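Request: Have a read of the protein record below and say how the chain folds.
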Amino acid sequence: MESHGSHGANAAGKRDGCYDGIIADIAITFHWSHESLMAMRIRDLRKWHNLAIDRAKVIYG
């Protein structure tokens, strides 16, 4: 679980901590497992992360 390079995180210029934070945000917002999100492409993660942020703004103001 050390390197996320195989998931395209490094190619996208994300540090591991930042990438893990994105996954955690999506997992919490949409109640998805961390493992299923790790299997997604970075492009899909960005789309879902934007949706998670929008949803949080609606819920929490």
